[in-house]
Amino acid sequence: MGSAAGPLGFGLSVEPQLWALIFVMVRVGAAFIAAPVFSAVSIPLTVRVTLSGAIGVLVLGIHPVTPPEHVFAFNTFLAVAAEALVGFAMGFILQIAFAAPMIASEVIGTSMGIGFASAIDPQNGRSTPALGQFFSMMLTLLFLSVNGHLILVEMIVKSYDALPPGAAWLKPQQLENIAFFGGYTFLAGLLLALPVGFLLLCLNLIVGMISRSAPSLNLFAVGLPASLAVGVVALAMGFPAMGDYLLVIINEALSATQSLVLG
Prior knowledge:
Layout: H1 16-34, H2 45-62, H3 74-97, H4 100-112, E1 118-120, E2 127-129, H5 130-145, H6 148-162, H7 172-213, H8 219-262
Helix pairs in contact: 1-2, 1-3, 3-7, 3-8, 4-5, 4-7, 4-8, 5-8, 6-8, 7-8
């Protein structure tokens, strides 16, 4: 077990392998806190810790990770913070991409008149638009179907080559790329809502022209049912193309994560 005043710098001793595993679990756990699917409130904390430990054992078997010598030293605090930053950045990029369906649902739901319909999102435990929850569920299922969760774990393991522990501070250019990737969320959300939004825009133009020609017409009695009917039909017709674009969003998110950790 080592001496009582071992490398930890205080009166207790811990196995070096255990300290190395805990140090590795910081990056993995931070990624799971921010990444979609793994960060869902329905996943117990015990499961996340167990997965982090299992992946940490895999990392230690592949990469010779040497943790800081003293636990309570200032350099150790900086190393742990760097590990948490790298893991959180990897998961945060995926979380940014998963926000695109929410933007699309706001655009479509507002045009259809069902923006008031909301439900509890199982991913974050908050009330979200029902249409956005539907898109998020489809995106999650597609993410799992293309093994995106396994690709994320693989990139976490490979990140120890490009960003070794102790020197894993992200460069300003990498942080800037994360910020610019946030703009892709708005672009992806608008493109995802484009098929349905365009038809609803045409419908609003038609209803507007009808209201000019017949001012006594009740727009709420005609426009809202028409918007709902056209929106539902447009969703049914355009969802295959929207599903293909959801796969594009997943690929872009995984590519951005890979470029962050692998260069």
